[in-house]
# Entry
Amino acid sequence: MPKRTVIFYPIERKILVEEGENLLQAAMEAGIHINASCGGSATCGKCKVKLLKGMADSPKHPKLTQWEYDEGYRLACLTSIHSDIEVEIPIESQVDKSVLALKGDRTAHKYLLAPQDIYQLVPGWEVDPAVFKRFVQLEPPTLKDNVSDLTRMVNTLAHQHGIEGVSTDFRVIMKLSRILRESDWKVTATLVLTKKGSKLINVEPGDNTKQNYSIVLDIGTTTIFGQLLDLNGCVVVACPGGQCDGTTLFALAEASDYNAQISYGEDVITRIVYSQRPGGLKKLQEVVVSTINKIIEELLAMSKIDRSLISHLVIAGNTTMTQIFLGLDPKYIREDPYVPTATFIPPVRAVHLGMNIDDHVHVFTFPMVASYVGGDIVAGILGSGVFQRETLTLYMDIGTNGEIVLGNKDWLASVSCSAGPAFEGAGIKFGVRATRGAIEEVSINHRTFEPMILTIGRTKPIGICGSGLIDTVAELLDTGIIDQNGKFRMDLPTDRVRRGPDGYEYVLARKEETQINKDIVLTEIDVENLIRTKAAIYAGCKVLLASVGLDFKDIEQMIIAGGFGRHLDLEKAIFIGLLPEIDIEKFIFVGNGSLLGARLLSFSKNFLKETERIALMMTNLELSNHPTFMNEFVAAMFLPHTDSSAFPQVMGRLYLARREYPSPRMVEGQL
Amino acid sequence: MPKRTVIFYPIERKILVEEGENLLQAAMEAGIHINASCGGSATCGKCKVKLLKGMADSPKHPKLTQWEYDEGYRLACLTSIHSDIEVEIPIESQVDKSVLALKGDRTAHKYLLAPQDIYQLVPGWEVDPAVFKRFVQLEPPTLKDNVSDLTRMVNTLAHQHGIEGVSTDFRVIMKLSRILRESDWKVTATLVLTKKGSKLINVEPGDNTKQNYSIVLDIGTTTIFGQLLDLNGCVVVACPGGQCDGTTLFALAEASDYNAQISYGEDVITRIVYSQRPGGLKKLQEVVVSTINKIIEELLAMSKIDRSLISHLVIAGNTTMTQIFLGLDPKYIREDPYVPTATFIPPVRAVHLGMNIDDHVHVFTFPMVASYVGGDIVAGILGSGVFQRETLTLYMDIGTNGEIVLGNKDWLASVSCSAGPAFEGAGIKFGVRATRGAIEEVSINHRTFEPMILTIGRTKPIGICGSGLIDTVAELLDTGIIDQNGKFRMDLPTDRVRRGPDGYEYVLARKEETQINKDIVLTEIDVENLIRTKAAIYAGCKVLLASVGLDFKDIEQMIIAGGFGRHLDLEKAIFIGLLPEIDIEKFIFVGNGSLLGARLLSFSKNFLKETERIALMMTNLELSNHPTFMNEFVAAMFLPHTDSSAFPQVMGRLYLARREYPSPRMVEGQL
# Structure
């Protein structure tokens, strides 16, 4: 088979491929990222590339305009390579990782708790990790006392530290005799507390008890966040002079990266579909571990902690991400009746999963509740303290999916809404992830209808991200450009509103102002998609509340979690009916709630039982086939909602706006 | 480096070696067996080979006579190869495995219990294995009941079989979802009962509960024995019509082989020495596993059981064999104060040790007591029922070492005597293992002093094995050829007694009657070595008894275990003072006691606790540095013993014999 070369621009990478090979596939294998939200199925149209040189077999496709096709744009997933070629990956088909680091620089949202406040959510605990180290000084053996080295170790742990009935990992036994003698019978034992007692998982020479660290990870569908923690609870950077006051339990280092699985599909469903291809599951497992290993390297480099000192790993993720990470086939998560393989996972040795970490370290996986309510939500309920308060709380985590939990310390109920990844750019014509150049804040002038936009990184825009989308729709509604059905009004004195190839649209940025050399618009179809998404979430909340005989007015606290929460404009989200119109003081944004929970669990063994209790206590309500969900969903397909009594303030504001610019189409519709 | 070829006869194998390579080493690497009891240290002189062709660098050595050297005999351990050579491995330097199979053919010893009687030793138990299978019929999931597959499995096990709080091996989770669906929710669960509850270790499609097997192994220094058991307790061959009456718990198949480690030294000490070479431990671990894998293949082939149906492995071995098998450095077993790495070993996955068995199967290792009192002895105490009887019992296992246990159901004390492997041929000029051609029974005519010898396999003799050695010495003593010091009398009318190169000797077989073309003799030095061995064992018993204020007369039962026991002539063993002169009805020969115990443990979970209790209860007495052991040892260096009051019947018989043939040397000695 002859070989062909492909050169990718702007990254200037050259790869060697087989004649006839698929371009998207070849890029994936080479680790070159091209957006592809449909998993290469030629439906999303995101994997556009521009052929600069050479021949390729690549048909036309509805997602490509004639102009684009003539300019050389092709869908990579439809392209097979038949000569040496050169292609450009346009900016909108790339992912820009640097935005993740930017997030921290932005001014904290006014409802977002500062790190030091977050521990107010879960008061009354002490650092007492489940994986702990003890310094052990053994009496050397004599002819009168020559019990085995292991028996001596176990007896001394009981005698010196009161730890009785320790069991032992076989790998410790392999090196025990040598280390005891090399270190003159003075060693550091690493133990893990399990439901069945303490287990000895490592011995190190000398006194290493001051050096005990863990890594906690939130494995998201889009992004993976990691933190490195000092399990002795002392953070030198936070506590000048190296003295720990016991409350400053920040991470020693934080790192994050896009989940490398995004090359194989943007949401859990496309990932599950990909996993069913031959070798698909293995591939997905490998790439998520490769991202995690990169994060671990970064955390170790930032904190200057030696790899061998990491004793514990805690991961939280949604059920699909967790199963794929563990190599468990996610097939049945997607098929009615949506059954996960396991919700309680025993500790797994990290090296077995391919993680680059010492072989005594086990991965503790947050227990899950159901196929679409995962360990990330259980971790969020732990980390936000819902599990220990009387307060009736609605906890909402909106990421690639939307999961909602209702309850307090005595009971918990959950639903998962297939909200769809509209907030992450999918299904939106110029939708992008919250990446550099994404429009994240929008306001529209009430008289001129001209927009003011802010992008992440303050560069020329490349598209609209989730918070920009909410802002835009809220502003379009507020200014009367769209009506409550999301339909455009065409009689306004502005060329920003026009008829485009996909129907009516609003021009947020003109071609020459963008990085992508195209007008960035929000279409009526985009608005419809957003409405569907927000309706699903709102209806999910409603059904969940109704299932226990409650309503929004009963909610005492509303916690918004998820990377999304950091960018969300609360008032605008209420204005379009994504969030209910309740007292704004009841909202708390906690950021990454899963990571908060993972951190707590790693710091204190007392949370092990609580975590299990949360997972067991949480009752999941399946929305598919639910008798009232569809009605609630349809009722919410309106801005803000067909039940105007639920949004009195929004309605009042809309009433005032409508007096100024009455909508002919709306009037027509009402006749 | 130029390559040289070596051809070995009579096996006709050709190997390629580096110029200058050591011949013994090269043979070992190629898996060609040459006896070597000193681990290649040029002290035992067992690795004689005959150079037929080519040049080799190989010095003379005291173990080679001038005649042998002139004939081309060399010590392989001293030989380096400098040309293409051809060598013959003489029969006495080979091991003949076929004898192991022969043993079963021989008439049972009169004190040896028949297999069906052995269960009388441990009455009152039922088949209820710790590794068990249960058929589980799960309700398929619905939208109303879509808990995870694992939760469904765990709940159904509780509901259908009353097994609560099951934990799960991660490998089961990996395949659970697929198998549940492929088998229409009807599966067989394999569980193991541990101290911490039941653990699910396998699921198979359909009802496989009738197919649950285990393999038990006794890993001896010289020989490894294995049995394949039906854990449902039913043996088709033993129970016509396939009906099991619950008592016929024989093995479905039995197999054995020499421990391939014997190429690296004949006793535990030389093995430990070898393990300290670079790569030595790894090599020893690999070769013992290779022997075990061969035995497993044989067991599976004989029983026609599929490998996947083996659920459990139980091994018993002395501490050194166990540690090497597990890959644990045995170094400190040999160094004062003789500390093993661990006496209680957690279950280890068999595949991790290199065993060719399904990956859900764990190895249960019998707990050990001390460096020289291993799991084989704990298994023997279990298998012989000592642990549950009031009867004061002395349990003696004489193999390559001699271990002795005293006690009953309430207490146990043990000693280990470095008896030396005299009974296995080491230290005896024509000593061989109990292999084909080994002289195993001897009687000597009182008038002619001519011997009658029987060999294993009834072929021409190649040497003397343990039971032949005891017989010969007893007969030499009985006929007055040797005196009570083991010294030869030279005035008898026979040329069988003569002065040889190593001093006085008795000719058991003349050159032309043997396979080795040499006179087979027993020398005065051999007799001395045997006396040392039997003295160590007798003194060990004496010290052990004295340590609890008892004497031989207090013993109510004496159990002799070990492959050795099957060949031993009890009266002759008492005659030379190896065994005490007690009521002959108190003796029981149990054969391989360790294998009995291993079988019990695999059949019934109730023995798990008993086994642990035995190991914890047993107090080991170290004989090195013991204040009275040396005195007892010296006192026993006489035939039968310096304390003639302990052997009244033997002394009476000797008195009668001496009247007939008074010994001038003995009389001299007494003057």
In short: Chain A touches chain B through 46 residues (CB under 8 Å). Residues 280-303 of chain A form the longest helix (24 residues).
